[in-house]
Amino acid sequence: MWRAAVAAARPENCLHGHWPPAPTGRLAVVACGKAALPMAAEAVRHYGDHCEGIVIFPDYPDTAPRPPAAGLQLYPASHPVPDSSSVRAARAALDFASGLEGADLLLVLLSGGGSSLMCLPAGGVSLEEKQALTRDLLACGASIQEINRVRKHLSRIKGGRLAQSCAAPVFTLAISDVPGDDPGAIASGPTAPDTSTRGDARAVLTRYRIDAPASIHQALDSPAGDAPDTGREREGDRFHIVASGMTALRAAERWCQDHGISAQVLGDHLEGGAANLALSQARQALELAESGRAACLLSGGETTVRLGPNPGTGGRNTEYALALALALDGHPAIWALAADTDGIDGCGGHSGAVIGPHTLGRGRQMGLDARDFLRRNDSATFFRKVGGLLEEGPTGTNVNDFRAVLVSPGGH
Questions:
Q1: CATH class of segment(s) 2-243
Q2: Over the range 347-386, which residues count as b (16 or more CB within 10 Å of their CB) and which as e?
Q3: pTM of the model
Q4: Which of 107, 285, 304, 329 is the one with CA 20 to 30 A from 162?
Q5: Would you call 21 exposed, middle or buried from its count of C-beta atoms within 10 A (0-12, 13-18, 19+)?
Q6: C-alpha span between 105 and 407 (Å, rounded)
Q7: Following DSSP, what letter does each residue of 143-168 receive, concatenated?
Q8: Gap between the Cα atoms of 370 and 379, Å rounded
Q9: DSSP string covering 344-360, please?
Q10: Cα-Cα-Cα-Cα dihedral sign, residues 213, 215, 218, 222
Q11: Which candidate, 175, 189, 144, places its Cα nearest to that of 341?
Q12: Which string of b and e fits 265-295 if b means at least 16 CB within 10 Å?
């Protein structure tokens, strides 16, 4: 079911029919995100080898991709915390876009992960300071919208600034990984108008008690941190979302229907603490099981995990799965899967986890305290020991988390 959901959101299955007409001038491509390489490959398949530009993608270990076309330059960069390669990629994209003219077309292919992969700190803010801030934001339990709200106001390329640098029309095709599919939040919106303010960004730091250096506060106090003043929306620009979390959920719903399973889609925008969501969905599943009804609860979105000191190996999906297993306490009629559709959940290289009636029992037989693993943010280690860790690897797309809770009172 999860693989059917992921397949529906892959570039080869969701970009058809969305391509703009070729321009009279240059066809310039900037692809950035976890789906950047396959999205760029689809552009070449549609337009031919005369595509030119830049492809910015995660620098995964043991990978050596080839450019989809001779005119496309590859820029591997860092995720989830930016590094110097992310800065190099952002500068290349900004320089490339600023060299285009009115008869050209800038085709921007965005997907999740772009905020870290394409990073150009605001004036007065060092890369090291932005790295530290990113780590603090990722660890404090802030939502992706809150994190990107801060990043946009500390950047020279996000919050519409890439489009503002370009004299050519900008046509953006995006695979959304953010709940609500806000164009300004996908990869921190390099081509989308920014509706947030510097005050909104400062409020996030205050809310999560993040002790940022003086340079961060100075940048957020400076008018330079405001969104570009375009006066009105650039007339020739367009922004289309070609796939989202709902794309994956509907594909899973169809899979259920094809296999005689009743599916309930709870939404693709569920947020909050991973363990809290697990408790809520465990109650829903237990009520279904008590009533004797068989169903599969499908949901997406992006939960959060507040990391304690010295966290172990895990991610928001393995954290959700372990909390769900504890809440279900070995119920004989409930199984579940939670995974990130990009194939990488948190740290450790895994995609997520699968649980069933025997998950906790196997742990007890091995002398493992599941609650202790959850408390230490070491959920992936627990599943690696007892079984159930899902290790699919990078998928070539990213529409955020996918969760399926299967209730089968008949036991099959």
A1: alpha beta
A2: ebbbbbbbbbbebbeebeeeebebeebbebbbbbbbbbeb
A3: 0.92
A4: 304
A5: exposed
A6: 50
A7: -HHHHHHHHHTTBSSTTTHHHHT-SS
A8: 8
A9: --SSSS--EEEE-TTHH
A10: negative
A11: 175
A12: bbebbbbebbbebbeebbebbbebbeeeebb
Confidence band (pLDDT; 50, 70, 90) for 231? very low
Side-chain half-sphere exposure of 67, counting CA atoms within 13 A: 16
Angle at 389 between CA 387 and CA 392, to 5 degrees: 135
For residue 213, is the peptide bond before it cis, meaning its omega torsion is within 30 degrees of 0?
A: no
Edge-to-edge order in the sheet of strand 27-32: 72-77, 52-58, 27-32, 105-111, 170-175, 238-243
Consecutive H or E run containing 336: strand 334-340
Burial category of 257 from C-beta neighbours within 10 Å (exposed 0-12, middle 13-18, buried 19 and up): exposed
- Expressed in angstroms, the distance from the first to the final Cα of the chain is 16
Phi, psi of 382 (to 5 degrees): -60, -50
Nearest Cα neighbor of 409 from 240, 274, 286, 298 is 286
Q: Which residues contact 160 (CB under 8 A, 6 or more apart)?
A: 184, 189, 190, 191, 192, 193, 194, 227, 228, 230
Residues 43/105, Cβ–Cβ less than 8 Å: no
Angstrom distance (rounded) from CA 217 to CA 220: 5
CA distance 152 to 227: 8
Contact assessment for residue 51 and residue 42, using Cβ atoms and an 8 Å cutoff: no
Read off the tokens for 314.
């895990």
Residue with tokens 């046509």: 171
Asked if residue 201 lies in contact with residue 220, where contact means CB atoms within 8 angstroms, the answer is yes
- Is residue 391 within 8 Å of residue 321, measured between CB atoms? no
Query: Within a 13 Å sphere around the CA of 19, how many CA atoms are in the beta-carbon half?
Result: 18
What dotted CATH number matches 245-407?
Answer: 3.40.1480.10
Longest pairwise C-alpha distance within the chain: 68
The residues spanned by each domain of the chain are 2-243, 245-407
Q: Determine contact, residues 216/125, Cβ cutoff 8 Å.
A: yes
| Half-sphere exposure for 365 (CA within 13 Å, toward CB) | 8
Task: Return the CA Rg of the chain.
Answer: 22
DSSP for 353-403? Answer: EEE-TTHHHHHHHTT--HHHHHHTT-HHHHHHHHS-EE-----S----EEE
Q: What is the pLDDT of residue 331?
A: 96
Confidence label for 346 from pLDDT (cuts 50, 70 and 90)? confident
